[in-house]
Structures are given as structure tokens and as C-alpha cells.
């Protein structure tokens, strides 16, 4: 009897301990949540993340604190989140830079983009556009390519993230031109130098580049996707502009560290889907150049794995060597 009583007590105690995380997940959130952004303030991901953060705060009833940790192709921020406690109070809004491209661009990435994270939801897409300094004579992508062929190695392109790196290298590869890459730590700095004329052109996300195009500080020549974008329907695709097999897009999504409780994942996924379903929010995001939509955690996880493989092929095909 004594042994049976002791065993029952142990089992009951174990059940009580197991119930604690479930209870905490049910009460989540009970304190502010930190949303890590892997790019500088003023970048497209930062602008979108702050809108989502504000909306999620209202839905979840807790403050969302946005914290920027830029640098190293978004790997600094990604590694920080991967090492965080999986309690739902450190979240990550990121793009293909940290999860699709960095593992192929860099020799030593300190995390696994699939195993070290819990996928929560897609956020949408950040379409990219090719923009040039308006003092340059190019009115079309064909003009830029023709000039680059006449002056090999003299035309420069900036990049502030992995999509910018891969897009520029893909253009060089597809068009058979020799152009010089000038890398930056973030999009705001690279845009500043294209506007100032220190660099000739770049591929930038719509959220960051569109205000400069609208003000006349930059000229947009094309979108980086296979089809035209509904956000800027007057811009041709790269294929229409004469560059075949060119289809690059920057995805956006939300993660937690590996091991995030399913109850918390479900609550966050529902909240993100609620944000995306708001017509006024969707319009605000579209005005920034962001195509907002969401997904289930399972679909997002599958998408992340597929994108990692796709970007590996894009980077190999563009002839980019790991740094």
C-alpha cells in the first residue's frame, strides 16, 4: 500500500508539473513581447513589423516591443532568437535573407533555419524593384544592360540584404554583363547612396524604395518577379524588360525559437491572420508596397524548407561564392 501510495503521489506530482507549461500557454501573454527585426529602422521589414506589432498588441492585450538587430545578412538577429527561451516572449519577423539565402551566402551560419525555429505564420511578400539614380541616362533595363556591355566593370549596384545581392548577381549572369557589387549593412544606407549618386542602381523592396520613386529621387525600371505586381502595375517584369528566367521575391514571416508550445503558436497564428484580414491594415501595408497574407504554421514550415532549397539553386546559378 505504501509503495502504491508513493507511486500515485509521484505520478500526480509529475502530472502537475506537466500542467504548468500548459497553464502558462493558456494564459499567454501575461507580459510584453519582444519582436526582433533583423534589419535597421527604416527598412521595409521594420516598417511592416511595426504595423503588425501595433495590431498584435491590440489583439493580444500586451505591448509588442520592436527591437532591431541588423547585420551579417540577418544572422545576428536570427541567432539571437534561436537561442532565446521558447516561451512566446521573443518572436522574430524576418525574410528569406535569414532563412533562405544566408545559409548559402555565408560559410558559418550559427543556426539551422529549419530545426532551430518554430514557424508561426507567413506575413506576406515584399516585391522588389530595380531602381536607378535619375541622373543616369537609363530609361529601361535594356538601356542599363547596353551601357554595362559598353563599359564592363564600371557600373555599380548596391545591396542592403540577400535579395538585393542575389538579384544583382542574377541580372549580371542572365544579361552576361560585368557590374560591380557594393554591399551595405542595410537598405536605408544603400538607398541613400543610390539617391546621392555614389552607386548607380540597386534592387530594393517596394516598401523602402517606393517613396523615393514617388518623390522623383529614384527612377524605377522593373519589378523583380516573373509577373507584374498589382501594387505597381505600370512597371514591367524583368522578363518583359528583356531578362529571361528572372523571378525573385522576398517573403516575410513570423517565427519563435524551436520548442514553442503549440498553444502559443496557435494563439499567435490566429492573431496574425486576424491582422491580415483587416481591410484597413491590408491597405496601409499595400501603400507601403507590401502584399499581406498569412498561412497555417504547418504550411509556413513546409514553405520555408522549399525556399531554402530554391534559394540555394538561385545562388549557385548566379555564381555567388560563400563568404
From TrEMBL:
Gene3D superfamilies: Bordetella uptake gene, domain 1, Periplasmic binding protein-like II. CDD domains: PBP2_Bug_TTT. It comes from the Bacteria. Keywords: Signal. InterPro entries: BUG, Bug_dom1. Residues 1-25 form the signal peptide. Belongs to the UPF0065 (bug) family. This is Tripartite tricarboxylate transporter family receptor.
